[in-house]
Design goal:
This protein is of the alpha+beta class. The protein has three domains: 2-65, no CATH class; 69-179, Band 7 domain (Tetrahydropterin Synthase, Chain A), CATH 3.30.479.30; 210-312, no CATH class. Helices cover 54% and strands 19% of the residues. It contains seven helices and nine strands. Strands 6, 7, 8 and 9 form a four-stranded antiparallel sheet that branches. A three-stranded antiparallel sheet has the order 3-2-5, with helices on one face. It has a two-stranded antiparallel ribbon with strand order 1-4. Strand 7 and strand 8 form a beta hairpin. Helix 3 crosses helix 4. The chain is rod-shaped and about 175 Å long. The N and C termini lie far apart (179 Å).
Length: 320
């Protein structure tokens, strides 16, 4: 009795295991699955975990790897806006997002990559054809638009792959860019011309700035010279006015004036180490021999003569 019970339990366990083996399947985090009934797809499974189906041959499970894949297109020549040819190598990062659409449209990864190659080539021709060559090769890094071009390629390619093949495009990029020798020479020539134009512009701006600086300096120079000349004239006028007072005083006493003149001439002559042989009676060196005998006029008399001169506005006559 006990042996019979154990046999029944073993049979039940075997039956359960068999049923689970044919009706249950597991989907991992990196996978997605498609369930077909008599060869026709009925539902896709993208949630990881344990799932159930009808046993074969009623239903079958097709498991796909849903991790990202990288597919590269070979180097191909395309034309930019302006008819400048370039050679590019592009790539796309993709994964299976809708197993049902993928199974119905392509079925295998190899067939999917064939379709991706065609769609990516069409996309790169369309997008690159809307951009000038200077968007790819430029002496100014800010003018290069690789990021914008790759975003436009992703926007153009993504909906097509999703709608037609159940493939999600996560990134599209340009891996390599080449230009022919003739195009390279033309590019370098344009770059040289652009550099020369920039140099001419900078030189012109510098010359204009230098001209403004010189003009401003000349204007300030004239202003300073005019101010200095005016000040010099004012100083000379003040000096002449002050000297006129002494001239009038000397005019009133000619002998004193002649004496002071001779002293000044003697001082200037002898201020350096000079040897002069002259007669002792030669003016003004006779002062070395003896002092002249004259009496300066009384200052009160000189003042009276000056007042009389100012009143009569007549110059005094120098006595010889």
């Amino acid at each position: 009795m006990k042996t019979k019970g154990m046999t029944i339990i073993v049979l039940i366990v075997i039956l359960v295991i068999t049923v689970l083996f044919f009706t249950a399947f597991q989907v991992r985090e990196t996978e997605s699955a498609l369930v077909t009934r008599f060869g026709e797809p009925v539902r896709d499974v993208t949630e990881p975990g344990l799932h159930f189906k009808w046993p074969p041959p009623i239903e079958s499970v097709h498991v796909f790897d849903s991790r990202n894949r990288v597919f590269e297109v070979d180097l191909r020549e395309t034309t930019t806006r302006g008819a400048v040819p370039i050679i590019v190598k592009t790539y796309v990062v993709w994964n299976i997002a809708e197993p049902l659409t993928f199974f119905n449209s392509v079925g295998t990864v190899l067939e999917a990559e064939r379709n991706i190659r065609t769609q990516l080539s069409d996309t790169q021709n369309r997008v690159i054809g809307r951009h000038h060559f200077s968007d790819f090769v430029n002496s100014d890094p800010d003018e290069i638009k690789f990021v914008q071009i790759e975003e436009q390629m992703l926007t153009d390619l993504g909906p097509t792959l999703m709608d037609n093949y159940g493939i999600q495009a996560n990134a599209v990029g340009i891996k390599r860019l080449q230009v022919s020798e003739d195009v390279s020479e033309n590019v370098f020539e344009r770059m040289r011309a652009e550099r020369n134009r920039m140099t001419d512009d900078i030189l012109s701006q510098g010359m204009a700035l230098a001209q403004r600086i010189r003009a401003d300096a000349d204007a300030k120079k004239k202003e300073i010279l005019n101010m200095a000349e005016a000040r010099a004239m004012r100083i000379r006028g003040e000096g002449d006015a002050e000297a006129a007072t002494y001239y009038r005083m000397l005019d009133a006493d000619p002998e004193l004036a002649m004496f002071l003149r001779d002293l000044e001439a003697l001082r200037k002559t002898l201020e350096k180490r000079t040897t002069i042989i002259l007669s002792a009676d030669t003016e003004p060196f006779k002062l070395l021999k003896q002092m002249p005998t004259f009496e300066p006029k009384d200052p009160s008399v000189v003042a009276e003569e000056l007042e009389e001169r100012e009143e009569t506005d007549m110059p005094l006559v120098r006595q010889q």
